[in-house]
């Protein structure tokens, strides 16, 4: 078996590496299947198929490559969807919490406009508001920034 050659100089080394890479991809696919609690049937020794032919190996390698890329893309999409869901849920909570404030403010604005018509006083103050979501790790810095910008006039 080519005793004078090192293990990397032998002709079959590239095939062994390809098989190792395919085995890694199969293990990755198997782990992803198990994460979703899908049962993988165990093959009995009598039912294990024979080794594939070289052309079948190329097709199998291409199929494994395609499947691995699809699984990685799906996993990334899952992470993105969960992140978007959390962001939208946070925004929904902000809208729910501020809705009462807006409804109260409309009543106050109507009363102020009615009083302003009666008294014709000008120079009323203008109040503004900002609503949103700030991560826990940025909460203290955000509070400090608001305090400084508003010169202590913040609720």
From TrEMBL:
Its main location: membrane. GO terms for cellular component: plasma membrane; proton-transporting V-type ATPase, V0 domain; vacuolar proton-transporting V-type ATPase complex. Keywords: Coiled coil, Hydrogen ion transport, Ion transport, Membrane, Transmembrane, Transmembrane helix, Transport. Residues 19-84 form a coiled coil. The keyword Cell cycle does not apply. It is found in: Membrane. It is a multi-pass membrane protein. GO terms for biological process: vacuolar acidification. GO terms for molecular function: ATPase binding; proton-transporting ATPase activity, rotational mechanism. Essential component of the vacuolar proton pump (V-ATPase), a multimeric enzyme that catalyzes the translocation of protons across the membranes. Required for assembly and activity of the V-ATPase. PANTHER family: V-TYPE PROTON ATPASE SUBUNIT A, VACUOLAR PROTON ATPASES. Belongs to the V-ATPase 116 kDa subunit family. This is V-type proton ATPase subunit a.
